[in-house]
Design a protein that fits this description.
Elements lengths: L2 H10 L6 H9 L2 E2 L2 H4 L2 E7 L5 H8 L2 E8 L2 E8 L5 E3 L1 H4 L3 E8 L2 E8 L4 E9 L2 E8 L11 E7 L4
Antiparallel strand pairs: 1-8, 2-3, 2-10, 3-4, 4-5, 6-7, 7-8, 8-9, 9-10
Length: about 160
């Protein structure tokens, strides 16, 4: 399976995506390590599976995430009304850190939110693109028993 082409096809979709398709893609990706993420700002993209977080991030003008170091992560980098980027610590209930955590039998670089029981696990599509799946506890994470799926592309402009 060509994961780069499969991801491009999923991103080009105009109709909702069945989360099983993202589960299938995930199985073919390589777990990301902490070193793959730190030192960069990443531009986010969301998969429309019908999960409420897809809509919430659109309304918050979500740009992506910044991984300064393993202990300094800005999980919700958004645009303000003037088009400037800021870390939305109100919505994210603080910031986050990176840990290596087992998810679905594999150790992945995992972003742990400071103020919520939420974990974002990451796997690599290529050196500049990762797919993330939100995991954790309760209604913040699951919508109709489904995870929230998203991706990040390394911002090479900074």
């Amino acid at each position: 399976m060509d994961v780069v082409q499969r991801l491009a096809d999923l991103r080009a979709r105009t109709e909702r995506i069945d989360p099983r398709e993202l589960d299938s893609l995930w199985e073919h990706l390589t777990p990301a390590g902490i070193g793959d993420l730190v030192g960069y700002r990443w531009k986010g993209f969301s998969f429309d599976t019908g999960h409420r977080t897809h809509t919430l991030l659109g309304k918050s003008r979500w740009y992506g995430k910044t991984f300064v170091s393993a202990s300094e992560v800005q999980p919700l980098v958004c645009y303000d009304e003037d088009g400037r980027l800021f870390s939305d610590t109100k919505t994210g209930r603080g910031e986050a850190s990176l840990w290596e955590i087992v998810f679905r039998g594999e150790v992945t670089a995992t972003m742990v939110y400071d103020g919520m029981p939420v974990f974002d696990h990451f796997k690599k599509v290529d050196a500049n693109t990762v797919v993330g799946v939100m995991n954790g506890k309760g209604s913040l994470v699951f919508d109709n028993d489904e995870h929230y799926w998203f991706g990040l592309e390394r911002d090479t402009a900074v």
